[in-house]
Specification:
The chain has 10 helices and 13 strands. It is of the alpha+beta class. The chain folds into 2 domains: about 170 residues, Ribosomal Protein S5, domain 2 (2-Layer Sandwich), CATH 3.30.230; about 120 residues, Alpha-Beta Plaits. Bound molecules: L-homoserine.
Length: about 325
């Protein structure tokens, strides 16, 4: 980031529009590292105002709905905007937010990462011409709030991302997914807390399990980009899914049944949704039939990879006329 003008302030009435994709993290062996952007999006409009924070939400998280989100300065999108202003040392304006959400909450589809990236991108847009917030800054600020970069990286950059953290902060490599890969997301009615899921992880794992996951995650990058026929072998995991299975037994059972039928099924993020990386459209429909046969209510969603990632655009003030 570079300070273009130490004295700058966001003009009242400046507006930006933001669009950010859902994501699926881990993808089996790539715990806290691999992520995929999905074609389900949250949309946001933000206006700089004289004072206060006002949030309107429609769709997922709206007032009165299950898992409704706060509409004051504790709202996660608002917190992300304010975090960026704090980090770049510019006084935050008042904020009016209008969020239109489609990403399910608590299902392992990156809703909190998307909310954070939406806020960080909105701040970047509001700060245009005042402070240059680079895409590396967006990844850094979003990771500071999310704690790990595997959801926020694909939400920012799109496609398949490898994310890691070094002494300089979070880094990423974006890759294009092979066109022979089709996605199915099985979404249950139940929700799962990422915090709870992470609390079930051991502090140490056997060396053999670490080697197992190193081999599968390296293979998975090749399978997703060049050789989809390797997806089944490449999606095995010994670092997180078995430790968390007791907290989401239906998810674990569905992953087992799908894999027994030959499908590359994994827990999506911290769960409880299940992602299938199918090798062709017919295999995806076979997997969808297995999902829809469950006694417990699951929704099978046929998805695609979002290749664009998060966007922020100015809304011209004259457009209101
Ligand atoms: N890598 C994260 C986890 C993704 O599995 O805990 C969910 O935030």
């Amino acid at each position: 980031m570079s300070a273009a003008s130490a004295a700058g302030a966001v003009p009242d009435g400046r507006r930006v529009a933001v669009r950010v994709p859902a994501t699926s993290a881990n993808l089996g062996p790539g715990f806290d590292t691999l992520g995929l952007a999905l074609n389900v999006h949250d949309e946001l409009e933000v206006e700089a105002t004289a004072s206060g924070v006002h949030v309107e939400v429609s769709g997922v998280g709206e007032a009165g709905s299950e898992l409704s989100v706060p509409t004051d300065e504790t709202n996660l999108v608002a917190r992300a905007i304010l975090h960026v202003f704090d980090r770049v040392g510019v006084e935050a304006p008042g904020l009016r937010l209008q969020a239109t959400n489609s990403i399910p909450h608590g299902r392992g589809m990156g809703s909190s990462g998307a909310a954070i990236v939406s806020g960080v991108l909105a701040a970047k847009g509001l700060l245009d011409g005042i402070v240059d917030v680079t895409s590396d800054d967006v990844l850094r600020f979003a990771t500071e709030l999310e704690g790990h970069p595997d959801n926020v990286a694909p939400a920012i950059f799109g496609g398949l991302t490898i994310a890691w953290v070094d002494d300089t902060g979070p880094r990423h490599k974006q890759l294009a997914v092979h066109r022979g890969v089709s996605l199915l997301m099985a979404v249950p009615e139940a929700t799962m807390s990422t915090k709870l899921a992470r609390s079930l992880q051991p502090d140490a794992v056997p060396h053999a399990d670490a080697v197992f996951n190193v081999s599968r995650s390296a293979l998975l990058v090749a399978a997703l980009t060049q050789s989809p026929e390797l997806l089944f072998d490449a999606t095995e995991d010994r670092l997180h899914q078995s430790y968390r299975a007791s907290a989401m037994p239906e998810t674990s059972a569905l992953v087992g049944d799908l894999r027994a039928a030959g499908h590359a099924a994994v827990v999506s993020g911290a769960g409880p949704s299940v992602l299938v990386l199918a090798t062709d459209p017919a295999a995806r429909l076979e997997a969808a039939a297995i999902v829809e046969d469950r006694a417990q209510a699951w929704t099978a969603r046929l998805l695609a990879v979002d290749i664009r990632g998060g966007t922020v655009e100015p809304i011209p003030t004259s457009a209101a006329a």
